[in-house]
Structure formats: structure tokens, C-alpha cells
Amino acid sequence: MKTINTINIMAITLLATTAISGCTSMSAGKGVLQDSHGRGQGTVKFTIKEEFADDYASVKAFLSSGEIYKGKFIIAKTKSSTLKERYNPKTKKFEHAADNTTKFSSNATGLLFGPKGKTMKCKMTLSDPSDGFEGGGIGQCNVSTGQVIPLQFEEAD
Known about the structure:
By secondary structure, the chain is mainly β. The chain has 1 helix and 8 strands, in the order αββββββββ.
């Protein structure tokens, strides 16, 4: 009997781990590195990894020069809770219940760190905030060197 309980616990643990790890989404973006006059200086590819339980997305930006920037993007959101009174026909009494909602903004910001102390500050507008970066969007990153990267995130298929 003890062996069966151990097997059941192991199976439940495996299922829970699989369910949690399944709450990850990957998105891709692309942009063009431009100098202060708007002249193209190469391409930039972005990878975005969103975890369901986290309030941020891990981001990497790969410049055609070989430089890699890493950091986080955060989607702004507001949480609200409303206390509502509802009638329970079983108890024939009014009961208080909390109605919790989370509203995601279409605005996201990010800060990435690159080689030799360089940074990249990004501002994005998401097409469908409830889908995160998977829903697509556009934005711009400003590199600490004065370069600019207009970027686009493709909607996931």
C-alpha cells in the first residue's frame, strides 16, 4: 500500500510540474537599429518569455553586431476588488462576496542591459493587452549610445 501511495504522490507531482511549466509563452519581435539621423545600422531580433505566475517578461535583444541585451518588460496593470452583497437562497441571507478583477494596460516598459554598461530603455503598445506580447504590438527602444530601435512584436499563430 505504501508503494502505491508513493507512486500516486510522484504522479501528482509530475502532473503539477507539467501544468505549471506549461504556463510559459514565447514571443518574437524585430526592429532596426538607427542612428540619431534615422539611418539604419543593422537589425535587432527580440525574444520574449512570459511566465504565467510572473508580473514581467524576460527579454533578450540580439543586435546584428553580435551584442546581446538582457532584461525585463513589464505590462502595466491595475487590480481592483469590489465588495458585493448577494442573496443566498439556500441560507435565505444576504452574503458579502469580493469581486476581484485585473485590468491590463496596453502600455509596457522595459530595461535591458548590454555589454560595457550600455542600456536599452523600451516603451511598447500592445495590440491585445490580455494576451501579453503574444498578441503583438509596436514600440521603440532607446539605447544609451543615442541609437533608436523602432520595433514590432508579431502576433502568435
